[in-house]
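Work through what follows:
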Amino acid sequence: MKIFDNLHKKLSSHSAVIGVIGLGYVGLPLSLRFTEVGFQVLGFDVDEEKVQKLNSGNSYFKHIPSSRVSQAVNDKLFLATADFSKAKDADALIICVPTPLSQHRDPDLSFIISTIEILTPHLREGHIISLESTTYPGTTEETLCPYIEGRGFEVGKDVFLVYSPEREDPGNPNFTTHTIPKICGGHTKNCLQIGLALYGQIIDKVVPVSSTKTAELTKLLENIYRAVNIGLVNELKTIADPMGIDILEVINAAATKPFGYTPFYPGPGLGGHCIPIDPFYLTWKAREYGVHTRFIELAGEINTAIPKWVVDKISGSLNKKSKALQGSKILILGIAYKKNVDDMRESPAVEIMRLLSQRGVEISYSDPYVPHFPKMRTYNFDLSSVELTADTLKNYDAVVVTTNHDDFDYQLIAENAQLIIDTRGVYRNNETNVVKA
């Protein structure tokens, strides 16, 4: 128990060195939270540009001010590095890397596997390894354990292994890393106790569960719950629309019921790294047990189809003005997947751009959070954000509200756009040039 006691003591006294692998939307705020309570943090990332920027005290996320990064750097509590041999200098190794889907919509664990392969030569007694990446039940014990045991370590005695899924909500001012309760499951009882000691230093409430599998499925349930309910209201939107019923009015009326109902809101599709992807992790794993997840897959099909429905709505709205979709000029308002962030992952706005381009539309976009269209695996638009003025708005045949950033001047848009396709329920006063989609 000496290894367990020493590590527990170092975590409790904040003398442990924390290593965070992957300095993205999850890893960076987690790193900064550890520094805020006095831990030394090593931030690992393969992107040298990110490493240099952070060590210069600069943030690359709009919702994370550079002042937080510079404070951690100036206090000598944070160092970013691309040198993974420094993993031996950390006591905790927290893995926060992407888990996308393959082109066939199967789980892609390549980032997790490449990370543990890089870390394995530098593992030592007294390490705690925590996986935070969203994945299917069994990943932690099936994928990470063999690498640890392959080095001759006994999990739960020499090295401790936990799964503790991220619960970040970028851009949400009501919740921060330390106020969001955190799930933690250990491979053994000792692993769980070390995991609770790790996260208990920075999180107000840590919720222990019986195993890593339970923690993995808990994360999937959270996101599948949202995906299914968003799929429901997205389908209801397509039913209410031809009936001339405002689905948002229906949802808001239903939300007055004080029990048995939680409001979910439709949009132009489903975005973000988690909700469009995570259900497919479970459906893939379920097939191993001979289970067909029809309900979950149906919600995925509905949400995936919504961007096409929006494009058809744009086309029909232009037709009513005796304009063809092909050859028209359309401005997309907001290409991040949610309001007030710069996160482009799985953004339905970009899929709408692709579909419109295929149909011969001249596309522009405006997004104060994304000044230049970034490099993406699936999409490639050589575009920069358009400044919204009365003159520029008048030049477009249609303006499509796909992400309802607070920075947009919606009155200016309403007064100058020829046609507005509103997928987010921004306009509620029956403006004559607004079509709800």
About this structure: The chain has two domains: 2-210, 235-436. The first helix runs from residue 2 to 12. The first strand starts at residue 17 and ends at 21. Residues 276 and 300 are 7 Å apart (CA to CA).
